[in-house]
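Hello,

I think I submitted the nicotinamide-adenine-dinucleotide job twice by accident. Can you confirm which output corresponds to this input? Input:
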Amino acid sequence: MPPTTSALVTGGTSGLGLAVAERLMASGVVPVLLGRSTERGEVALKSLGGTAVFTRGDVTSEAEVTAALDTAQRHGTLRAVVNCAGEPHAARVLGRSGPHSLEDFAQVVTNNLIGTFNVVRLAAARMAGNEPARGERGVLVNTASLAAYEGQAGQAAYAASKGGIVSMTLPLARELAGSLIRVVTVAPGFFTTPAAAALPAPARTELDRDLVHPRRWGDPAEFAALVAHVLDNPMINGGTLRVDGAVRMSSGLRHRST
Ligand SMILES: NC(=O)c1ccc[n+]([C@@H]2O[C@H](COP(=O)([O-])OP(=O)(O)OC[C@H]3O[C@@H](n4cnc5c(N)ncnc54)[C@H](O)[C@@H]3O)[C@@H](O)[C@H]2O)c1
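Support: Only one job matched these inputs. Its output is below.
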């Protein structure tokens, strides 16, 4: 029997991360879900069943990510990390109540970009100790957004946080090549998740206009299918793959939410 393989999925208790966890579990990998809410973790484990494990933590915390990696390594050889933790954010640079809050900007970048880097750096250190399998020690998959390329009005902070994830992908892949670790980013279009459901109706209607083909929002399982392929295909490295049904986001100027 081959040794057990584990994968850390940040933000794995809902939306895209939960779909990735489900897909990994179906392929025999033990998914370790890192999330901030124990309650949501318990619900996710109930829905997944099987071998899935939950570990409470915040991706911006060195101690909590370290503990999550310990948990993942107790459940198998850690060969994959899929970073799905992230938060949406919308605020105008010149809003009705004044200039964009600097604290908010820093918070979004800290959560989405620095949190992702924190997990990458700590996970890479663990993967570097793995015995190579099929010519590699591990794969790190990060989640950006179309906002990294065509951020809308009101998305300066969010776009900066996701653009940073896209930009660091190649240097990370180049650097970690010596450790036989791949780094790939996925940029999703519009997917039906709890975060998307929380968008105000006018914002959703506005986004619907940008749909091309298929003219619907994506199913998280379709995002997870791409992640599974990335994990399986050693030639995919150092770049960002869009999974968006040809959507190119418009300016967002027709809808003013803030
Ligand atoms: N759904 C979409 O259409 C869409 C589009 C583009 C990008 N994305 C990105 O995909 C990722 C997943 O989004 P989703 O739609 O599944 O949202 P979601 O809200 O369902 O899932 C995100 C999860 O990440 C968790 N999280 C956020 N910050 C965290 C932190 N600091 N530490 C630990 N966990 C944290 C949240 O609590 C949540 O459980 C996000 O990075 C999001 O920006 C989603």
